[in-house]
Design brief:
coenzyme F420-0:L-glutamate ligase activity; ligase; EC 6.3.2.31
């Protein structure tokens, strides 16, 4: 079953906001039974208060050393971000993950760092990784994504998807309340209708459509201001 993404423009989500109320407010007039609501993981994390000013973080010497081994364009390349990763996963686990990653490179195996350290670290957004004013913050991944999605579903009566999407077409599913294969939902999000800059569209309603040729599907960006 194909889906058409409808991106919803919202206000800037702030720490402490009730996500059930926010999602209900913006989807009530546009979502129908059978639709699925996709939320950006950054929106969830910010509402949970997981945005941290880097100047409030005092990196230990180990963080300064380890961040040199991170990809220079990655989210753990600054001392503050690596310090927060150490706090999230634990020092020994990050050290073990680093050793595994180094060994993996010798054999051409990628991705071992996050497999060992925990995939939650890959959802850390360093400075500039989200929209203003949170582009000045390090945004950690959301806590208890499955529970958050379940609670929002109870509040709005629709299945909920929490995702991390980038402009390269990568879609990571953190939580999904449905029982069917989320592959069609992932495909509908692959062109990143949520955006990674200042689009301010962290909610996407995935409109359920009858089976039609791919060429007949459109993906407009729409919504309403609060």
């Amino acid at each position: 079953m194909p889906y058409r993404p409808l991106a919803i423009r919202t206000h800037v989500i702030a720490p402490g906001e009730d996500l059930v109320h926010v999602v209900r407010r913006y989807t009530a007039d546009v979502a129908d039974p059978g639709d699925v609501v996709a939320l950006s993981e950054s929106m969830v994390a910010i509402a949970q208060g997981r945005a941290v000013l880097p100047q409030s973080v005092r990196p230990r010497p180990l963080a300064n050393v380890l961040r040199r081994f991170a990809h220079p364009d990655g989210s753990l390349a600054t001392p503050a971000a690596m310090e927060l990763a150490l706090r999230e996963a634990g020092t020994w686990r990050v050290l073990l993950a680093g050793a595994a990653a180094a060994a993996g490179r010798l054999f051409g195996i990628r991705g071992l760092f996050y497999r060992v350290a925990g995939h939650g670290l890959q959802f850390i957004d360093d400075i500039g990784g989200t929209l203003p004013p949170f582009d000045r913050y390090i945004v950690l991944g959301p806590r208890d994504a499955d529970e958050v999605a379940r609670r929002i579903k109870q509040g709005i009566g629709l299945d909920v998807l929490i995702v991390d999407v980038n402009d390269l077409g990568c879609v990571d599913v953190l939580a999904f309340t449905g029982t069917s294969d989320p592959a069609p939902l992932v495909e509908a999000l692959r062109h990143n209708p949520q955006g990674n800059d200042d689009e301010q569209t962290p909610i996407v309603v995935l409109k359920r459509l009858p089976d039609v040729p791919d060429a007949a599907l459109t993906t407009p960006r729409a919504g309403r201001s609060p």
